[in-house]
Amino acid sequence: MPEKKRMITVEALSKEFVVTVGKKGFGGAVKNLFHPEKKRIRALSDISFSVDKGEVLGFLGPNGAGKSTTVKILTGILTPTGGSVQVGDLVPYRKPRQNARQIGVVFGQRSRLWWNLPVQDSFEYTKALYSIPDSVFDENIRYFSENFGVGDLMTKPVRTLSLGQKMRAEITMAMLHNPEILYLDEPTIGLDVVGKNELHSLVGRINRDRNVTVLLVTHDVLDIERLCTRVIIIDKGRLIWQGNVDALKRAKGNEKHFHIVFGEPRQAIKSEHLEPVSIAGDGLRHEYRCNSDGIEIESLISLFFSAGKVIDINVTDAPLDHVMRRIYTE
Amino acid sequence: MKGLLQYFKVSVRVEVRGQMVYRANFFLGLIMIAVRVFMLIALWTALYAGRAEIDGIDLATMKFYTLASIIFEVLIAANVEHAISDKIRDGSIAMVLTRPASYPVSVCIEQFAFTAQNIILRVAPYTIFLLLSGLGFGARVYLGPAFWLSTLLAYFIMLFYQMFFGMIAFWTMEIDGILETRNAVMLVFSGSMVPLWFFPDWLFSVARFLPFQAMYNTPLSILIGRISGPDIWTALAVQALWLAVFFLLSLYFWGRSRQRVVVNGG
Q1: Starting at the edge strand that comes first in sequence, how are the strands of the sheet with A181-185 ordered?
Q2: Nearest to B14 among A101, A125, A186 (CB)
Q3: Which 3-state string (H, E, C) describes B23-69?
């Protein structure tokens, strides 16, 4: 077993921004013009983690938690206020240009593609920008065309592409120079179910075929469940949890969900072990949460059967988003 | 170096193709310029009102100057300040900063590509028009090395002057107000609206040492022989000085901006 290569090391990272505090009303606006009130805001404090080569790390957190700020420091765009960052053999903000060669970056909310022009032109532009040799470029185009149908998009102007097609083109473009690390910042934002599925299989495939390290920033737990081996959760600029996805579910208790369809409408079942999550379909469809360990599932199921005619019953692990909601609110 | 050349070539292609996407826009642009030329020619013809010359400039030369200044304006046109400030405003500066090329170098390459596109699509047809139309025939024109050197200096003053103003957006986020104020001053002092030699003496002396005239008035004055002999050297020196000033200011502010980068919107 070869030793795992460390790709990203972040230690005690912090970042402060100076912002102008907006004052209220017209008078406030005038005052702001001449005597702006400045305030320091701590966007990140004391973040430490590391990523090995070939890992898919999920970066989870609510809006404004500091996920994107962390990625912007890792990609060399922002300079941290304190702490240290190393990506490959480099400190990104000291050598942003060298760092750019070892990373691919896709921001879900911004496009690198030339809006007016066929996708091909954007690829050619990237080829020139990164001085990508013909052989590497052709091989990558072939790979992405065969596996992800990018070839069909080449001659289409970017403005005519669907969001899902555009995202495929974006990721292809970010991979043209064979980066070792791929940063994806909210790549599934605005995508429908089909688009998300396509994107998940694309990213998973790239990770397996090319051993690319992926850092996925998202607030969609589905992305995490489908793709990530390990998760980091950030909230209010602090790292509040890290570990693998299964451990995350376990960390908050062995919670089970029961989905029952009754033959006739009925009220919620009362039990000290069960907490109703939802009752729908005119009292036919019930969902309960069992929030205590050491309870025999069998005894709960017989409780349902004794409550009335059961048509269907389904027991699942707690969905990750329930776990997340509790982590955020704690 | 080979990489940069390739980057330039692809950028030119992207620029030209980008212009040709909206063909109606392109052709209307050509028509607009033609309208402007005929309006100015009519204006000057009326102002001369049969007089042989005004302030030592005859009508044929004045017509030539009018056309040449329009071509010149396109030739040294830059889109640098808005390219920079737009990226800062909408946060796409993040994309640029994760490229393997230095941002000021990228800005220059894109500007050269923009100019190449302008030469192919605008300067070339206007120049052919100028030659075919017969307008300004009989004008006294100097097309020697001093003119080309002055044009080159004007081009790079424009480039770094705009880069400097663009960089201000790293501090202020928004530079439109600053630019509008500056453009109003520039319109007067550059000589692009009214040739500077029609200014009163005191105003002319002020204008001579401002950066604005170094971009338009100096090369055009050399072209039609308003500046000649040893004065050419003074004019070129003033241009070189302004080029150095804006070059250094751009680099200085770029160096400091890296600490100040804020990425708007997510």
Answers
A1: A103-107, A181-185, A213-218, A56-60, A230-235, A238-244
A2: A125
A3: HHHHHHHHHHHHHHHHHHHHHHHHHHCCCCEECCEEHHHHHHHHHHH
Residue B262 lies in a domain: no
| Residue B16 lies inside a defined structural domain of this protein | yes
The larger pLDDT score, comparing residue B226 to residue B233, is at: B233
Kindly report the average pLDDT of chain B as a whole number.
86
Q: Is residue B88 part of a domain?
A: yes
Q: Kindly report, residue by residue over B161-216, the tens digit of the pLDDT.
A: 999 999 988 888 788 888 888 888 888 887 767 777 788 888 888 888 888 888 88
pLDDT tens per residue across span A282-329: 888 988 888 666 677 778 888 888 888 888 888 877 766 677 777 767
Q: How many domains does chain B have?
A: 1
CB-based contacts of A276, cutoff 8 Å, min separation 6: A268, A269, A286, A287, A288, A289
Query: At the topology level of CATH, where does A6-250 sit?
Result: Rossmann fold (3.40.50)
* Residues of chain B in Cβ contact (below 8 Å) with chain A: 2-3, 6-7, 9-11, 13-14, 17-18, 21, 91-95, 97-102, 258-259, 261-263, 265-266
Under CATH, which number does the domain A252-329 receive?
3.30.70
Q: Which of residues 165-194 of A touch B (CB under 8 A)?
A: 185-186
> Residue B109's beta-bridge partner residues?
none
ipTM score = 0.78
Across the interface, whether the CB atoms of B100 and A117 are under 8 A apart is answered: no
Structural domain that includes position B194 = 2-257
Q: Among A30-34, A116-120, A178-182, B40-44, which is the least confidently predicted range?
A: A30-34
Say if residues B142 and B223 touch (Cβ distance below 8 Å): yes
- A-chain CB neighbours of B14 within 8 Å are 114, 117, 121, 125
* Residue B28 located in a structural domain: yes
At B266 the pLDDT is 46
Tell if the CB–CB gap between A128 and B3 is shorter than 8 Å.
yes
Residue-range domain boundaries for chain A: 6-250, 252-329
CA distance A230 to chain B (A): 23
